[in-house]
Amino acid sequence: MSSSAQCHNVLNVMCPMHLILDRDGLILFAGPTAQKLLPDQSMIGRRFLELFDIKRPREISTPEALRETAGIKLHLQFRRPPHRDLKAVLMEGPETGQMIINLSFGISVVDAVQDYKLTAADFAPTDLTIEMLYLVEAKSAAMEASRQLNRRLQGARVAAEEQALSDTLTGLRNRRGMDRMLADLIANGEDFALMHMDLDYFKAVNDTMGHAAGDYVLQQVARIMLNEVRSHDTVARVGGDEFVLLLRSVDRPKVIDQIATRIIARVSEPILFEGQICNVSSSAGTTLSRHYEVVTADQLLGDADVALYESKSRGRRQHTFFSEDLRDQSGGAKTPLPRAQAPQI
């Protein structure tokens, strides 16, 4: 093997990104990794300064000027897309007039690996780039694992919070969920209606047909209520057979009364459970947030309860709007539903 061939073999292993130039700046030989920068054609016979733009030091435009940079770190940019920045150092070659240039990607190596489909075999065995690539890979894997864990934890947190705010039997909001939504509506200054509704004769269903029948009735009533309100309204089961509906952006009593009337009519229809008929009805009372100078949850719930009591006293299956006259007649507002404790999540 000639000394020239031996030199090439040594450089291919120790400096796989090297180039050997003649005195005129033509590329005589390209290491295997350097050749990957121009995969569709050979670098041999191309002028170095036609392929690479020397950014520092400046004013390097001739082979003679290039030769004078021997031993100085060069900052290059490959003229072909994706125009990767490279580092280089030039030394005189073993033969007269030759120049050997060793190239490096520097900190852009991570992107270059993807651009040129490089592997560990494309770098010298002792090149610290390999270690850096392993560290980058390990960091990426760790970050992805962390992201997946955070997504799972976030999903678990949301699920736990949702469970804490939901009624397990009906899937409606529970009292905690209703309290939270009511507090948000008040804090945002929205106009809304609060309707308190409960079932008539529900105790008779539980006493004569059992709790399974009662649970089934509650589930059917919940389905009816959800079907009669809009997607941005809230329906909550706040007690055994008690429900609160928060109807947002509704300021016309006629529309609210139509919603209540439809629910009352549908709930009054016989509910079939295991071949037996369950007969219940419902009564409702409503108050509007816009009727108060200062809106508080306790006041709204208390006044809606007063209106509900009036519906029951008028024979049930009724819907009544709260008014000051009702409070006077009832001797003051009824005791509102007990406030729920903050959910423990």
TrEMBL record:
Q: Where is the signal peptide?
A: none
SUPFAM superfamilies named among the record's database cross-references:
Nucleotide cyclase (SSF55073)
Segments for region (Disordered): 319-345
Q: Write down the PROSITE patterns for this protein, in alphabetical order.
A: GGDEF
Q: Which residues form the GGDEF domain?
A: 190-324
Q: Which Pfam families match?
A: GGDEF (PF00990)
Question: How is this protein named in the record?
Answer: GGDEF domain-containing protein
Q: Which organism encodes this protein? A: Roseobacter sinensis
